[in-house]
Design a protein that fits this description.
Blueprint (H helix, E strand, L loop, with lengths): L5 E5 L3 H13 L3 E5 L2 H13 L7 E5 L7 H9 L6 E5 L4 H10 L3 E4 L4 H18 L5 E4 L2 E4 L4 E4 L2 E3 L3 H12 L4 E3 H8 L6 H15 L9 E4 L3 E4 L4
Parallel strand pairs: 1-2, 1-3, 3-4, 4-5
Antiparallel strand pairs: 6-7, 7-8, 8-9, 10-12, 11-12
Helix pairs in contact: 2-3, 6-8
Length: 234
């Protein structure tokens, strides 16, 4: 990954591409563009063929004229771990869950706020760097998680978590900033024996221990009907 992240904008609306290009370049990103799924796959395929990925994150509209965005996610995930942030006008939870389960890192619903989109992009790039070899100690705000020694602290206070509570927090830490669906978390930690209500109980217990106000969490955020995200705070 280069020091200046490159974003591939995949959207069939010229006005949206222009808005994104201008905003991203103002924030210091390099940009590439594709108006169809075929163009996007060609651009990404060429980069993979060179043995490197000049594209650091993909902004993907699901409603393309030649190909469903879900198919692009499926094909891309078969060959690459490049972060994918979905741009969609589809507000139904089923679409969001399906995109995330296929391998998208995040989603932003149209119409979107540029500040929110930039935050999601930064989180996606940060997650990619983390996957490539981040430090074993995660810090966000007053929360610190040492994944090697399995030590959790909030401020100066040590936090005791049960093994299952720690496993949930550690999984979220390893994918900090990324939305993890209920199905993904259950599959990773329970296999076929878990259920969403059981997961919610454990998440509530973790929040009781790490959040200043469990009713208004700042660390473990709920994506309604979809799953959970561990916020990354400066």
């Amino acid at each position: 990954m280069t020091s200046i992240p490159a974003v591939l904008i995949v959207d069939d609306e010229p006005a949206i591409r222009r808005l994104l290009r201008t905003s991203l370049m103002a924030q210091g990103y390099r940009t590439m563009e594709a108006s169809t799924g075929a163009e996007a796959l060609a651009a990404l395929g060429a980069s993979l063929g060179e043995g490197r990925e000049p594209v650091d994150v993909v902004l993907l509209d699901l409603g393309l004229p030649d190909m469903d965005g879900m198919e692009i996610i499926r094909r891309l995930r078969a060959a690459s771990a490049v972060p994918i942030v979905v741009l969609t006008s589809r507000e139904d939870e089923r679409t969001k869950v399906a995109a995330l389960d296929l391998g998208a890192d995040d989603y932003v619903t149209k119409p979107f706020g540029m500040a929110e989109l930039m935050a999601r992009l930064r989180a996606a790039v940060r997650h990619r760097l983390q996957q490539e070899g981040a430090a074993p100690v995660f810090r966000s705000g007053d929360l610190s998680v040492d994944l090697v020694r399995r030590i959790v602290t909030v401020g100066a206070a040590s936090v005791h978590l049960s093994p299952r509570e720690y496993d949930i927090l550690a999984l979220l830490v390893k994918h900090a900033g990324k939305v993890l669906t209920h199905r993904h978390i259950l599959g990773q930690l329970w296999g076929a024996s878990g259920d969403v209500q059981q997961l919610r109980v454990y998440v509530r217990q973790v929040r009781q221990k790490i959040e200043a106000d469990p009713e208004q969490p700042r660390h473990i955020l709920t994506e309604t009907g979809v799953g959970y995200r561990l916020a990354v705070q400066e």
